[in-house]
Design brief:
The complex is a heterodimer of chains A (about 80) and B (about 400). Chain A has 4 helices and no strands. In chain A, helix 1 runs antiparallel to helix 3 and helix 1 packs across helix 4. Chain A is mainly alpha-helical and about 80 residues long. Chain A has a single domain, classed as ACP-like (Non-ribosomal Peptide Synthetase Peptidyl Carrier Protein, Chain A, Orthogonal Bundle), CATH 1.10.1200. By secondary structure, chain B is an alpha+beta fold. Chain B has 8 helices and 20 strands. In chain B, the strands form 5 sheets. In chain B, strands 9, 12, 15, 17, 18, 19 and 20 form a 7-stranded mixed beta sheet that branches. In chain B, strands 7-2-4-5-16 form a 5-stranded mixed beta sheet. In chain B, strand 19 and strand 20 form a beta hairpin. In chain B, helix 1 runs parallel beside helix 2 and helix 5 packs across helix 8. Classes of the chains: A mainly alpha (about 80), B alpha+beta (about 400). Chains A and B meet through helix 3 of A and helix 4 and helix 6 of B.
Chain lengths: ~80, ~400
Amino acid sequence: MTRDEITEAVLRALSDVAPEADPATLRPDVSLRDQLDIDSMDLLNFVIGIHEQVHVDIPEADYARLETLDEVVDYLVEKTAP
Amino acid sequence: MAEFVMPALGADMNVGTLMTWLKQPGDTVARGDIIAVVHTDKADVEVEVFTSGVLERVLIEPGAEVPVGTALAVIREDGAPAAPPSAAPAPAAPAAPAPAEAGPHIAISPSARHLAEELGIDPALIEGSGPGGRIQRKDVEAAAAARDAAAAAPPVPAQVPPAAPPTGPAVEDRNAAMRRAIASAMSRSKREIPHFYLGQTIHMSNAIAWLAQENLRRPVPERLLHGVLLVKAVALALREVPELNAVWQGDELVRREDINVGVAIALRGGGLVAPAIHETDRLSLDELMHAFRDLVSRARSWSLRSSEMSDPTITVTSLGERGVETVFGVIFPPQVAIVGFGTLVERPWISEGQVLICPVVNASLSADHRVTDGHRASAFLAAIDRLLQEPDEL
């Protein structure tokens, strides 16, 4: 997947857990938790969404690396690299 | 004929607005079917019917706000003659058939028996999966699902689409209404219930280590949240201190046999609801996680069911997401207790002369002093603590 495709998939997964979020106003370098009021259930659903759309299983130990949109995309680009 | 009435879905509910009919006159309805969506100050709630038969006529049109107890529709019970087509008063309906009795030899929980009656399932035909073959709600649901799958009946929607906001009040109005409902219930609680508060710091090393190992081997969609361990521990601890699994009615304590833990769920845009997870103590952690996820999803899409709103016997709230360490909860009447959990945090912990760094969580209990006292309440918190030390037994 290209970086753009991954970004698109991440935004889809985010919109499933925070349907009121507007991707256009989402700041890529600011905490998703702070911007979208995400709790642990949302985070789990987000990780499940990533699992379904990008086919990457994110271990719990890596959750701390998923603070912002940019960090999530960077992480997935790294994990899907050939 | 039986009346289908506006249900009371909480201590603070006096009126409700009929949003939608999901069945039409002439449709067959079975106990347990969701036939209407009702808007309350706190949520849009899918309302189950408690009579099997035919929806004879609706008395209230969508959009009308009516007091609790108002007849919304008339249901012709199974076996009752059809009403004449004229507008003349309907003849007196014959006595409703007596609910099927399970018989004293059938081990079945009251909640499961109630559900079996609602769904028209004979408990004698159900194989119980609980201790000693006791029939549980999930057994009834499985039996009903098997029956429905076998029947070639017209499909009844298992999942009702969420009651969409566009047909209801504006979001701002809904949020304001929810705040009013919360204000009413909490004011009543602080006015009428003599609260007392206890707290206990619980060592979570075992639970967190177990959970990390467990989630490591699980596929992503089957992972557990640590909140599920907390809820299950509360449910099991209630077996040891059953006076906290109760409601206060009139001037007396009414204990509930089924343990239906209400879980506080924050809603997007503000406000909260605390619907019940039925028979929480009897669910495996997987079942509990599944139920919890489903409940959160439906609460946030405003599609809870009436029994979930009316059946909690205690509430659990966790406010640790944003770093709160200790919760001083307000009891939701008519319940008599609320358990709060703070954030999971590392603290120095002295064990056998050694200072260790351990994950801990503060558990708090707000309890009704008319019902219990500090000694019993302490035993309850101690039981939660003890249960969390053996997470694989939850």
